[in-house]
UniProtKB/TrEMBL annotation:
Function noted in UniProt: Catalyzes the reversible isomerization of glucose-6-phosphate to fructose-6-phosphate.
Name of the protein described by the UniProt record: Glucose-6-phosphate isomerase
GO MF: carbohydrate derivative binding; glucose-6-phosphate isomerase activity; monosaccharide binding
GO cellular component: cytosol
Amino acid sequence: MSMGQAPVDPTSTAAWPRLAALAGELEPDLRRWFVEDPSRAERLTHEVGDLRVDLSKNLVDDAVLGALVDLARAVGLEERRDAMLRGERINVTEDRAVLHTALRQPRGASLHVDGQDVVADVHEVLDRVYAFAEQVRSGEWTGVTGKQIETVVNIGIGGSDLGPVMAYEALQPFADGPACRFLSNIDPTDAALTLRGLDPETTLFVVSSKTFGTLETLTNARLCRTWLLDGLPESVRSEAVARHFVAVSTALDKVADFGIDPENAFGFWDWVGGRYSLDSAIGTSLVLAIGPAAFSELLAGMHAVDEHFRTTPLESNVPALMGLINVWYVDLLGARTHAVLPYAQLLHRFPAYLQQLTMESNGKSVRWDGSPVTAGTGEVFWGEPGTNGQHAFYQLLHQGTQVVPCDFIAFAAPSYPLVDGEQDVHELLLANFLAQSQALAFGKSAEEVRAEGTAEQIVPARVFAGNRPSTSIMAPRLTPSVLGQLVALYEHITFTQGVVWGIDSFDQWGVELGKQLATRLGPVLAGDADALADQDPSTRALVAYYREHRS
Ligand code: F6P
């Protein structure tokens, strides 16, 4: 398939009307399905790397899964996957290859794109990042006054923030280097609070920006540079930026313009999308925190899932199946959102990370050839760790009027084993993990509610309809490798959905207009009367309010 060709319209495939018919006749009854098919749990549980993925509590049967796989074949999922892995320019609107999978190819592998071995390039940069991290972690690299680096501040936003901060939090048990803080927001409060209590002499800044043109990141980098210089003795200021600032970017010329020594800059390539860049040099702060060995394990975990995605037939290809089931929910069963519910406090930023991955990738209304999409796309991903979410929004999951597919994630071994008297507290967590998917799937009938002696008038309020879909993902424990596997799993789920919908999952034009307008509104806020007059009445009134109340 040529990547410039029109995508296959999923609704024009033979599988689509079959799916529509199956959706129309669907009478979900997970209780009965499990009784009638005692092997359902086993048959619908798959393994990918260390991940055990139980799909059995989804509203699918063999006919639905068969039709979804046929749909995937008809839209050319396998061909497009292979084209991506080969380095074809499947990011059509930006005319770029999409090669985040090359970032985790093992040393010695090779992949030639435009005559260049990109895997060799990847390892050359990784080696530089690792060598730098070892210097900082060992104390050989010091601040300008000779003190060891104690805190790393990653300055970046979007993909240059969410991946590193998510992984830093997730891998706290493996963090044995300097502490990291993450500065992203243009709100000056973020800079003020991130820098609060830090010592300029022992702080290292990693300015992470693919383009090195992002307003938030460059503004925050300048604020930090000023803070650093103001906090150091005058005698060392001229050398300070070189010792306290490093950069990660594809635009190394702009890094130099900012005043950062190119020796202290780590590059990557335009074929790495921001939201797919955790495993590039964008992970430098993470490498500083957990060390090169643990980061290599993260990469190996990602590669294992890439290999599964590349080689496993669609019938048991876990990311493909999960992506296809998501399409089933969005387009055939009317789901608009998807909850990701880690029963692991360490994954507390995982849903936020996934929001960029999934929604910046698949929140699109046109296909890669510019024609309108033919089916609903891009469900809203959201979530919070269990059990906190249970005491907040699970009410809607259990008894609301919407279909909300849920992904539950848990680990057999605790990262921090603690007991409360005789009680293993991790078992309390896992009991809740199991209970929630059970309650969603199997519910509680009116008869069961009545049998508990409930007054008749409140029986309806206490009934749980059940048949609310979920996937349960488990792994032995949360290690760097397992985190890498989870990230790659969701990357390929996202890709699968994008291919079915025919969209370019690797551009993000939808973020541009707001950036342009913000640039124009800067002078308006600063008092430019002519620019204010050009604004709409709502904006003019909001600016007037600002003027009146800014003290
Ligand atoms: O505005 C969206 C975006 O372009 C994301 O795709 C990207 O991850 C983020 O901004 C940050 O971009 P950069 O790494 O170039 O600063």
